[in-house]
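---------- Forwarded message ----------

FYI, see the DUF2917 domain-containing protein record below. Original note from H. follows.
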Amino acid sequence: MNKDDSLAFVHERLRYNRAPTGRASGLRSLPRVTRRFVVELEQGEAHVFEHVDRTVVLRCDRGGAWVTHDGDPKDVILMAGEEYRAEREDPLHVYALVACVLEIEFEDDVTQH
């Protein structure tokens, strides 16, 4: 899976987790799994994760990134070895200050096909 595919999958799964037909439906509790994706970002590359919850964790393995949420006055700078857990459900912005490697972790419903 290349970087674009990985990021598209993360966006889709986070969107599903917040969808009314997803886990929020309350009909029955689905089993959960922790998913982890590692992506390399080029300096200046930016991504917005529209759908996050408090299970989303970003870990910086190499380089550095700027992280913030819409409407949050707090800016977070992640350097190698540091992590950030989403504190809000507002869109999460990630900007690579230098080329970096980020691990994106979140809880996801187990789906059956």
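H. also flagged this: Confidence is low (pLDDT under 50) at residues 19-25.
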